[in-house]
Amino acid sequence: MARFERIALITGANKGIGLEIARQLGQQEGVTVLLGARDEARGQEAANRLRAEGISAEFIRLDVINHQSIDQAAGFIEGKYGKLDILVNNAGIFLQEKEPSENDVATLLQVYDTNVFGVFRTTKAMLPLLRKSDNGRVVNLSSSLGSLTLNSDPGFELASFLVLGYNSSKTAVNALTVFFANELKNTRIKVNSADPGYCATDMTGHAGSRSPAQGAIAAVRLATLPPDGPTGVFYNEDGPVPW
Ligand SMILES: NC(=O)c1ccc[n+]([C@@H]2O[C@H](COP(=O)([O-])OP(=O)(O)OC[C@H]3O[C@@H](n4cnc5c(N)ncnc54)[C@H](OP(=O)(O)O)[C@@H]3O)[C@@H](O)[C@H]2O)c1
After folding, report:
1. Ligand 1 cavity residues, CB under 6 Å
2. Which of 83, 219, 224, 225 would you label with 107, given CA atoms 20 to 30 Å apart?
3. How far apart are the two ends of the chain, measured CA to CA in Å?
4. What is the rounded radius of gyration, in angstroms, for the C-alpha atoms of the chain?
5. Coil, strand or helix at 57
């Protein structure tokens, strides 16, 4: 492996914004992208597509709600590459939820298991490999729907979108970003949240106004920040998003 080669792992990379993040990172010189996917056929197909475009891409089985699969993925990366430079915690789910007073714990637990604990499990397992990088970067896919500042503003266009589980899961993702960034502030690892905007993917029934490629831009920027770049921030493509 060339010394300058960067290894990037993207969770939920078989489709949507995750696949586009993998593509845009893989288009950068010296970056090998590991496409995390819970389904082997879908993951292999996505990796084949990127390889056909000339990108150094490899499928890696990774289900963010399954500890064993995360540990196996970390073991594989350790054995083959010995380090990880970029981790993009992209995998996420959106369930149909009743309004907060009618919601139930089972639904909240299901959403949190993937969107919050999945990010925690994966980050924790990959941290020893990120510490071996000269420029470790962690990017967590968040959303303006998780912004307490925006949701507290009656003028916020999405203030009536009362999806407690999903929205608060992204608030919790932002908390993970801040606390991991603070813990790691004296290391070379930066931890940041990216807001992709409203994108046309399976998650949104393809109703979003932005393409998945546009949705990938903020995450790719944060994944490739220079050493003097920020840590513990929440950015969309245009700049900071309020917490
Ligand atoms: N689309 C938007 O407008 C929007 C806006 C703000 C934030 N986001 C966030 O951006 C991220 C990507 O969203 P998207 O729109 O691209 O959604 P998507 O098209 O539904 O893709 C979600 C990806 O996550 C994977 N995934 C789900 N559960 C998983 C698990 N347990 N383990 C591993 N992978 C899992 C899915 O795999 P399968 O194919 O196997 O299901 C899929 O690859 C999510 O975190 C989402 O919350 C999206």
Report:
1. 11-12, 14-18, 38-39, 42, 62-65, 90-93, 114, 118, 141, 143, 196, 198-199, 201-204, 208
2. 219
3. 39
4. 17
5. strand
Amino acid found at 232: G
Return the structure tokens found at 169: 């899961």
Res 191: pLDDT: 99
Which residues does the chain have with pLDDT short of 50?
none
Q: Which two tokens stand for residue 233?
A: 């921030």
- If one counts the domains in the chain, the total is 1
Give distance in angstroms: CA of 6 to centre of ligand 1. 24
pLDDT of residue 4: 67
- pLDDT value, residue 3: 52
Task: Report the nearest-CA residue for atom 20 of ligand 1.
Answer: 203
| Confidence at residue 2, expressed as pLDDT on a 0 to 100 scale | 53
Residue 90 maps to a domain: yes
